[in-house]
Design brief:
alpha/beta, 15% strand, globular, binds ligand CA2
Length: 156
């Protein structure tokens, strides 16, 4: 099975250092470690990355088309601005989860619009680091049930 890509956008490298009341006290490295263990308990690997650059995020989403079995994406502020990220996502045919640490609908109105949501399988927000764990659990279930179905000859 190909790894599950977990891609993080701008400023997510700062969580745990600044604004803990919004994003929690945990670091991105701590989130990564927990997700790696969760995936490995299910016999799966993750490929976890963060960038502050929109083009890099687009390149990685394109890479996920062939190199990953599923994608978990926290596009950070690009969620609310990036048609390029949305277009890249629309080229994927793997399951995709949009995650946010904060409940974007409880915050400023400019955060209520997501260009990512229309291009993904599902959205989880507002549970802090647990948003990522819930998204990974959903991706693992989807992959397990589609691999079980393909073993029974139900899928191509
Ligand atoms: O809640 C989320 O996960 C967000 O994607 C986080 C983004 C924000 O722009 C989105 O609206 C919601 C921000 C990432 C972290 O930004 C920080 C800025 C200052 C200090 C610490 C983190």
């Amino acid at each position: 099975m190909k790894p599950i890509f977990i891609l993080n956008g701008p400023n997510l490298n700062l969580i745990g250092e600044r604004e803990p009341e919004i994003y929690g006290a945990g670091t991105l490295a701590g989130i990564e470690e927990g997700l790696r263990k969760q995936a490995s308990a299910a016999g799966l690997e993750i490929n976890f990355r963060q960038t502050n650059h929109e083009g890099a995020l687009v390149d990685w989403i394109q890479e996920a088309r062939h190199a990953s079995s599923a994608l978990i994406l926290n596009a950070g502020a690009y969620t609310h601005t990036s048609i390029a990220v949305m277009d890249a996502l629309r080229a994927l045919s793997i399951p995709i989860a949009e995650v946010h640490l904060s409940n974007i609908f409880k915050r400023e109105s400019f955060r209520h619009r997501s260009y990512v949501s229309p291009a993904v399988t599902g959205v989880i927000c507002g549970f802090g680091a647990q948003s990522y764990r819930l998204a990974l659990a959903a991706m693992i279930e989807i992959l397990e049930s589609s691999s079980a179905a393909s073993h029974r000859g139900l899928h191509a």
